[in-house]
Amino acid sequence: MSKIAFVFPGQGSQTVGMGKELAEKYQEVGEYFKRADEKLDVDLSSIIFEGPQEELTQTTNAQPALLTTSIAILDRLKSEGIEADYTAGHSLGEYSALVAAGALSFEDAVYSVRKRGEFMEEAVPSGQGTMAAVLGMDRESLREITHSVTEEGNPVGLANLNCPGQIVISGTVQGVEDASSRAKDEGAKRVIPLQVSGPFHSELMKPAAEKFVSILDSIEIGHAEVPVIANVTASPVSDAEEIKRLLIEQLYSPVLWEDTVEKLLELGVDTFIEIGSGKVLSGLIKKVNRRVKTYAVQDEASLTETIAKLKEEA
């Protein structure tokens, strides 16, 4: 029996026009964008559908925009009777995964990630923190480098463990520069500085996590109806209190995406459906295991094709 995981992309996957075609074709899809506008009292749907890209890319817009797009598209899949055995999301995508699993309402989630984006932006003054992708180095070697640089007074750490040979580091500008230089000296194939607005998933995000507690206290978090693989632990979580605790820790902890995919494979998942914008997670999943089936659902064509193939395999 085939097991399915719904997976949801995080910040960086946003593109102007995402979800527009489906929102125009299906009234129930369009309703999600209207509900997000009403909840946030912002014309978010115009930013999503028309841009400009610079405005959509701002953390406070990108986070609710991606969540809205993912959940709107998810509605179409579910209306065709396609359900998941597990859900997971990359960083911000974990909130979409929790909505998909029934632990968060759409309105509470879109409000939460808007505030999450605000607090992340405020945590570190602009220009003081950054991130970089390190290619071709194992995690233990890179962890030793970041630990050594941090000990010297320039905080930096592992932020996203995406797939074998692709790890993102995060911290102060000096810390990331020093760690990047040492990684290259010690055999990393490439280091790519990332265009981000802050040092996400690093210890420098602890002030954001402290503020964010009050937001999670103000919304209703329920038990997940299907297990969600948490970023912080790469283990299934269903309990409401544990979900809340892990969402706070997630802000300053590494995203264990490679481990998450490995855990889902171990649990018998053989079909991954990426729901939202882009195909980033599908690519990372294939780098963990080439044999699994991956589908990326982002528009009418990919939705129709995915539904047809899943029904054929059922």
Automatic annotation (TrEMBL):
<feature type="active site">
    <location>
        <position position="91"/>
    </location>
</feature>
<dbReference type="InterPro" id="IPR024925">
    <property type="entry name" value="Malonyl_CoA-ACP_transAc"/>
</dbReference>
<dbReference type="Pfam" id="PF00698">
    <property type="entry name" value="Acyl_transf_1"/>
</dbReference>
<dbReference type="InterPro" id="IPR016036">
    <property type="entry name" value="Malonyl_transacylase_ACP-bd"/>
</dbReference>
<dbReference type="GO" id="GO:0006633">
    <property type="term" value="P:fatty acid biosynthetic process"/>
</dbReference>
<dbReference type="InterPro" id="IPR050858">
    <property type="entry name" value="Mal-CoA-ACP_Trans/PKS_FabD"/>
</dbReference>
<comment type="similarity">
    <text>Belongs to the fabD family.</text>
</comment>
<keyword id="KW-0012">Acyltransferase</keyword>
<feature type="domain" description="Malonyl-CoA:ACP transacylase (MAT)">
    <location>
        <begin position="7"/>
        <end position="305"/>
    </location>
</feature>
<dbReference type="GO" id="GO:0004314">
    <property type="term" value="F:[acyl-carrier-protein] S-malonyltransferase activity"/>
</dbReference>
<protein>
    <recommendedName>
        <fullName>Malonyl CoA-acyl carrier protein transacylase</fullName>
        <ecNumber>2.3.1.39</ecNumber>
    </recommendedName>
</protein>
<feature type="active site">
    <location>
        <position position="201"/>
    </location>
</feature>
<dbReference type="InterPro" id="IPR016035">
    <property type="entry name" value="Acyl_Trfase/lysoPLipase"/>
</dbReference>
<dbReference type="InterPro" id="IPR004410">
    <property type="entry name" value="Malonyl_CoA-ACP_transAc_FabD"/>
</dbReference>
<dbReference type="InterPro" id="IPR001227">
    <property type="entry name" value="Ac_transferase_dom_sf"/>
</dbReference>
<dbReference type="GO" id="GO:0005829">
    <property type="term" value="C:cytosol"/>
</dbReference>
<dbReference type="InterPro" id="IPR014043">
    <property type="entry name" value="Acyl_transferase_dom"/>
</dbReference>
<keyword id="KW-0808">Transferase</keyword>
